[in-house]
Design brief:
By secondary structure, the chain is α/β, with parallel strands linked by helices. It contains 13 helices and 7 strands. About 50% of the residues lie in helices and about 15% in strands.
């Protein structure tokens, strides 16, 4: 079903509509952070731990699409080979397909299918580029931002807006020099900002801190459901999603072959007659509005 949805085959919207009635059970965990922070290693270990607790766990790993070939490495499938043999697990690699935020627009659809299939946990791992942090916050129930001591002064985290979207911080590779300083600095910044966001120290290569991280995630899940936070967050996410769906549908209807040709013809006027791009856009929109009448 995910392949049908990704490829946009006939009936894909109907599949999603039917699946949506069975969603809402799975807890969606977003893991983001810079490349090389150990997101895949952390995901690998969390899957093992969650499955040991009899939680059906799925992973959607998004890799960047090449702007030249349109292909993607989808390397997470390779890095996570040792968990593919576990029961009650599912791994899906997806290409970002040109999304500047690092997440495929179909990722949320795939998560709905997995949710409807009865999984308890869905881990969404981004490529860690562009605006992926914001993308993941709009999709997940819990957003984990992964950093390493070499990420630099953790003030950069505040500049990147991570304070606003993180539910948990993970400082990975804490066996490296500067980890204590980075941890103290991050905690200080959170304190100054008045944010009570947990910071978990991990060493994914030796499984260090993974149990504490999983416990913190499940603790957050319980408090979110009990306090009604999860409902509020999901309403906000659905609001964004519905607006995106409307924008995409209107764009598909607007860009007929006739209007595509009109735009190409108008480009000559833009160069020669200095016709404003805003004027051309308004004319195309007016044509569309007249058609709707």
């Amino acid at each position: 079903m995910i392949s049908i949805i990704e490829d946009g085959r006939p009936g894909w919207e109907n599949i999603l509509s039917r699946a949506f009635t069975k969603t809402g059970h799975a807890y969606r965990i977003g893991i983001t952070g810079p490349p090389g922070a150990g997101k895949s290693s952390l995901t690998n270990l969390l899957v093992k731990l969650f499955t040991s607790k009899n939680l059906k766990t799925a992973v959607i790993a998004v890799d960047p699409t090449s702007p030249f070939t349109g292909g993607a490495l989808l390397g997470d499938r390779v890095r996570m080979r040792d968990i593919t043999s576990l029961g009650d697990t599912y791994i899906r690699s997806m290409a970002s397909r040109g999304s500047l935020g690092g997440l495929s627009r179909k990722t949320v659809d795939a998560a709905d299918i997995i949710d409807a299939a009865g999984f308890d946990i869905i881990i969404l791992e981004t490529v860690g580029v562009g605006q992926s942090e914001l993308d993941i916050a709009r999709l997940a129930d819990c957003t984990i931002v992964t950093l390493v001591p070499e990420s630099g002064d953790s003030i950069q985290a505040m500049k990147a807006g991570l304070m606003e979207i993180a539910d948990l911080f993970v400082l990975n590779k804490c066996d490296r020099p500067g980890s204590d300083s980075a941890y103290s600095s991050l905690k200080t910044i959170l304190s100054i900002a008045g944010k009570e966001i947990p910071v978990i120290k991990t060493i994914a290569s030796t499984n260090g801190g993974i149990t504490e991280l999983a416990e913190e995630i499940l603790k957050l899940k319980e408090s979110q459901f009990a306090g009604g936070v999860i409902l509020k967050k999901r309403k906000e996410n659905y609001n964004i999603r519905i607006r995106q769906i409307i924008s995409e549908k209107l764009s598909e209807r607007l860009w007929t072959s006739g209007r595509e040709q009109y735009l190409r013809n108008s480009l000559e006027n833009l160069i020669v007659d200095k016709l404003s791009p805003f004027e051309i856009a308004d004319r195309i929109i007016k044509q569309f509005e007249n058609e709707l009448k």
